[in-house]
Amino acid sequence: MTKKTCVVIPALNPPAPERFYDYLKDLTNIDNLSLLVVNDGSSSEYHELFSKINRLPRCTVLPHHKNKGKGAALKTAFTFLQSQEETDTQIVCADCDGQHSIADVLRLAEAGGTRPGTLILGERQFSRENIPWKSRLGNRVSSLLFYLAGGTWIQDTQTGLRGIPAGLLAMLARLPGQRYEYETTMLLAARRAGWPVAALPIATVYEDGNRSSHFRPLQDGLAVGLTLAAPLARFAAASFACAGVDLGLFTL
What we know:
By secondary structure, the protein is an alpha/beta fold. The chain has 8 helices and 7 strands, in the order βαβαβαβαβαβααβα. Strands 3-2-1-4-6-5-7 form a 7-stranded mixed sheet, sandwiched between helices. The longest helix is centred in the last third of the chain and has 28 residues, at 219-246. It is globular.
């Protein structure tokens, strides 16, 4: 690893505990890389797992005593990293469910080192036949809504593998959102602030049909949709106002 990197992983009841531990252990063997794991209110049966993880070299575990959501876990990590004042450290966010290979984590980190100041998304390929239909449909809908709201087409708006420059942490720690809608809010905020966003293709892995995912299609899908609907509503209101002025319906 050429640039100092911290891998941030929110974790709620990791579906394959021993494999998750081995994954983290392998990451700690990489030079210039540290780990920050947020235990987002996992069940008591995972207590020993997180204690063991916390004993890994260059690894810190931050606890939520009850589940707060993925967005809240990410913000806990970002606030902690700000407190460390390590402005030369880039951040790579990954998931705990086996979707993100170590090779892709490292590729994203290396890409961040060559593109400072860029938010880099690990982009899954949803054209493959083994992708669960709800994941494929949900991502297509969110990509379309994001395009309408933000004017930019992003193929994978919900990817959990993201390379984040340290300069974004202060803004990201203040953003609203507690669960999966936070990842969409992050993209909208980065675009509004003028931060460049790039994508890097990654392997598309769904263990056991993605059954271990904590994403709730109805509640979380609705929250993501509402997050994207807000800028669309503002755009529609502004367009209506401009049209009203042009037609002489009212004056400014």
